[in-house]
What we know:
- This protein is α+β, with helices and mostly antiparallel strands.
- The chain folds into two domains: 5-149, Jelly Rolls (Sandwich); 157-403, Carbon-nitrogen hydrolase (Nitrilase/N-carbamoyl-D-aminoacid amidohydrolase).
- It has seven helices and 26 strands.
- The strands form five sheets. Strands 2, 3, 5, 8, 9, 11 and 12 form a seven-stranded antiparallel beta sheet that branches. Strands 17-16-15-14-13-26 form a six-stranded mixed beta sheet. The protein has a six-stranded mixed beta sheet with strand order 18-19-20-23-24-25, covered by helices on one side.
Amino acid sequence: MAELVLESVAPWAPHVKAAPLTERNNDTLAVAANGTRTCVGGWQLTYSGVEAGKSYVIEAEAKYRDVNRVRDVLRCEAFFGDLELNASRRRVKDVKAWDFLLPEWDDSSVHFSRCLMAPEDTEQLIVRYTFRWSAVGSAEWQLPEIMIREIEDEPTSVSVCVVTGQLGDRKRIFASIQDNVDFYLPLCRDACEKEKPDLIVLPEIALQYGMKDSAIDSAVPAQSKETEPFANLAREYGIHVLLGMWERDEDAVHNSAVLFGPTGAVEGVYRKVHLAVGGEMDSGVLPGDDFPVFDTQIGRVGCNICMDSSAVESSRMIGLNGADFLLLPIMGDHRAQFPDGGGWDTDRFRAIMQTRAMDNQVCMVVAVNTAKGSCVIDRTGEVLVWNDGSVPYVRATIELEDGIRAVSGGCLRGVNWMQRRPHAYGAFGDEENVGGLLVREY
Length: 442
């Protein structure tokens, strides 16, 4: 298998007045600020011999001096196809695909790396080193190391079922946990037999839903005889099952989502962080304090529960913690249902869920207790399946490597996360900030 050939190394800049100072010394490529904040540019390296469908590991190293905000100033990107040397805009017809290399910083250097698959119709790889937005400082880059990696066979898609029952199915009184088990378990089994899912998601507090008993009186541990039927189901069919429940944790009660894995063991427990106004927040239920993401056979799984969705930080934290899926058991949404608004506005609800998926580049799996509005939405915001309440469960297939790209040709997920500038988000974690409720004097 032929190695890539380095065809050229050249300075690049979008404009002569923006160009940084550059100097090459063998394999060391130096870049220095030009004294203005207009400064942007660096080095562009062109390689031939790329094979479509092969995965390439690209690594690059830069040592820097007098750079205050390294995340902003130093960038490394890889392009498959042609890229004009001195241009700020990427011509999509020439660039087949491009991606950011991911940085790791220490006090004096940055290591960039990424494993990328070469697309069809290109034999060329371009690595671009960038220094920008600083009037001071410098960096010394080394030529990148590029290796072909053989990728082992891994799951390429995940089949998801959202099991809720049909709208109006729950007309009788559900007086016990066993009543809920008897309602949901046969539906889950039917879905397993007919749809062969990898993941089943049940609604909020499905284990105790409809019971008159308080959360404090009806809560049970995540691993208990009450949850065992769902653990056994997961084991029998070799799948993941997310069960909503009032969870007893010694002296505390949580509104939780418990993820059972293919062995029947608990692979993760999420505890609702934002308790619902109007009752739950003052009921004795204790909120959780974090947004864990669980590594599983089907990908990285995170959860929100109902009211969590009203706080944009909830889904953002799941995204920031690296999730592929955001599972959302939910009874309703106060943004889609107003006292005088004529009931449940499914169009508004759908738009909210689509926004959460797009903004955080996750697949949303939404399980509404009454069935209507349950859905699966991919990270582009496309609704793959929607339950209008007429069926007891819905199914969708999620492609894990979907190849979705922005109009610029860059990976949509990469653009979403690498555009971030966290230093500008100070208010995000300010405990005294109340947003639009800031006190006004009249």
